[in-house]
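User: Hi! I have a protein structure encoded as tokens and I'd like to know what sequence might fold into it. I'm fairly new to this, so please keep things simple.
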């Protein structure tokens, strides 16, 4: 294994098709607890940490309750959906396993620790992923690079020697801000802004393209 480099995966939109679940659950909570959804809400919350999107629901969208109460409700409902198994994107588990045979692998996500644990246990990847960091733990949501820097530290690889796989505008910005080599894997449901996508060094449209892309980045 090459321990001089690392691969860091985003979770939502890259390994799991969960962005729609988060959106549906938050919309439901807004409707149920007296808030008002806005056209820009979905995009605004992409990449936010749990404390950030919970405050957004309360302070911007008018949901009743404290941010902590609202976050608990949303995460409980998300965990209920995960109980039947993570909504895996095609080839996700194999892509992680293949990358881990090459270099240390981590996850850097806006999902809370409870959802990360559900993903790792539901896929059997707990022993494969060396570090899994939530932006909640890192102290700032994407596009702040904190979660990517923490994930790189977790696998003991300098951030500049890591490759990040991201789908959203804020996620791409976070990885770029961490000075990582960035592979964009655009989510068709919530595509990144074209100008941000253009800044990625590489683009894949399926996780089956990851291994050959890593071969290009790190030739044998």
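Assistant: Happy to help. Inverse folding works backwards from shape to sequence: for each of the 220 positions I chose a residue that suits the local structure. Here it is:
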């Amino acid at each position: 294994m090459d321990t001089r480099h690392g691969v860091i995966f985003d979770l939502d939109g890259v390994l799991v098709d969960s962005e729609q679940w988060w959106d549906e659950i938050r919309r439901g909570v807004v409707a149920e607890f007296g808030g008002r959804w806005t056209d820009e809400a979905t995009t605004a919350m992409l990449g936010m940490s749990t404390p950030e999107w919970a405050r957004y629901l309360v302070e911007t969208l008018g949901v009743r309750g404290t941010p902590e109460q609202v976050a608990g409700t949303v995460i409980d409902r998300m965990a209920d959906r995960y109980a039947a198994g993570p909504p895996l994107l095609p080839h996700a588990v194999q892509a992680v396993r293949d990358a881990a045979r090459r270099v240390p692998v981590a996850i850097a996500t806006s999902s809370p620790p409870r959802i990360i644990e559900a993903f790792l246990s539901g896929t059997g990847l707990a022993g494969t992923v060396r570090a899994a960091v939530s932006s909640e733990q890192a102290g700032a949501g994407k596009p702040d690079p904190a979660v990517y820097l923490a994930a790189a530290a977790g696998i003991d690889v300098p951030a500049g020697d890591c490759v990040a796989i991201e789908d959203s505008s804020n996620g791409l910005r976070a990885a770029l801000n961490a000075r990582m080599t960035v592979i964009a894997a655009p989510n068709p449901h919530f595509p990144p802004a074209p100008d941000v996508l253009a800044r990625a060094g590489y683009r894949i449209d399926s996780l089956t393209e990851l291994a050959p892309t890593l071969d290009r980045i790190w030739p044998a």
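A useful reference point when you look it over: The beta strands are 6-9, 105-109, 131-134, 162-166, 181-184, 202-203. Feel free to ask if any position seems puzzling.
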